[in-house]
Amino acid sequence: MAEEHVTQAEAEVKHETAHVGKHYDEDKTVIMGREIPLPIYTVVYGALGVLTLIEVTLSQLPRGFLTIPVMLLIALLKAGLVVWFYMHLNTDSRIFAITLIAPVVMVLLATLFLMIVPTGY
Amino acid sequence: MSEMSIDKAPAEIPAVVLRQPEGAGGHEHNAQAHNENLKFATWLYLASEVVIFASLIAMFVLFRLHSPEAVFQVHEEANIWLVTANTFLLLTSSWAMVMGLREVRRDNAPGLVRWIGLTALLGAVFVGLQYVEYSELSHAGITLYSSEFGMRFYAPTAFHGAHVIVGVLWALYIVRNGMKGRYNAHNYIGVEIFGLYWHFVDVVWILLFTLIYLV
Q1: What's the whole-model pTM score?
Q2: Do A24 and B23 count as a contact with CB atoms less than 8 A apart?
């Protein structure tokens, strides 16, 4: 019984190690079936750089009604990339994601409340 | 008295031992659970930071909605290229951080030291350039109390800058530990916890950069 327990625990550890190795240590990244000879972290860094350049370029152009929403979406996408890949929410426990999202929702609701009620601001 | 304690001990110890999984696998499993707890504690801490930063950002957004012309004036004074360069520094430092974590997972301690050293360096340059930016804005008459904008601008950006300074010191501590051989492929939770903090600081800047300097 004890041996069985140890075997199961070791198997779990091996499973975790394989899981980690698969996501963090590979030298290549596959995006939509296409293989890129770079780690996922470097690919994400490149995406962050390109998105930042797009944002700054948009801010210097004459503004249309979509300019601000697009810039905000790009910012959220960049933040999401960092949280998802660099902070490992893609592989870590979902409870971590809930821990992050709960206060964001709380502050958003509080801000909306401030915007709706006549505070005299 | 002490004999009584010894007599009682055997009856209590098994209850504790029964909670521990047996064998070497159990030990590793415990270490893994301990690491998960540490990470969860860090996320809880970051959640408290989210509330503070989100409140500061909300304060700025409300001001931006009610006084857009005041923000546009500051946009003209602000050196957007300097701030963009600073943004790239922080993005690069985040990449260096996660590459350092990748190296220690591969049991490459010198690689960890190099990447985290780069993280600390880039963070320090970020703080230096933020000082330059504040000096330029100050010369343009935008100070903490010069207008309603001042406090709403400096509070979130300076609070973020303070976090970068703490992060740089923390990175140097990781470098010191790395040089002493305290991290390896089986023990790198210290690096991972620091990474969570540093990437969070990066995420906050991504949002501040867009909301304060671009929109």
Answers
A1: 0.83
A2: no
Three-state DSSP class for A83? helix
Say if the Cβ atoms of A87 and B195 lie within 8 Å: yes
Subunit contact B58:A93, Cβ cutoff 8 A: no
Q: Do B202 and A6 touch (CB under 8 A)?
A: no
User: B126: exposed, middle or buried (C-beta count within 10 Å: 0-12, 13-18, 19+)?
Assistant: buried
In this structure, the number of other CB atoms found within 10 A of the CB of residue A58 comes to 18
Nearest in space to B36 (alpha carbons), one of A62, A94, A47: A94
Q: For residue B6, how many other CB atoms are within 10 A of its CB?
A: 8
Give me the interface pTM, i.e. the ipTM: 0.84
Domain ranges in chain A are 2-92
Q: Which two tokens stand for residue B95?
A: 């990449």
pLDDT one digit per residue (tens) for chain B, 215 residues:
344 343 433 433 333 333 444 455 566 678 888 999 999 999 999 999 999 999 899 889 888 888 888 888 778 778 899 999 999 999 999 999 999 999 999 999 999 999 999 999 999 999 999 999 999 999 988 888 888 888 889 999 999 999 999 999 999 999 999 999 999 999 999 999 999 999 999 999 999 999 999 98
**Quick check: A77 contacting B, CB < 8 Å?**
no
Interface check for B39 against chain A (CB to CB < 8 A): the answer is: yes
The domains of chain B, with CATH numbers, are 26-214 (1.20.120.80)
Judging contacts by C-beta atoms under 8 Å, the chain A residues touching residue B214 are: 55-56, 58-59, 71
* Window B:84-123, CB contacts with A under 8 Å: 84, 87-88, 91-92, 94-95, 97-99, 101-102, 105-106
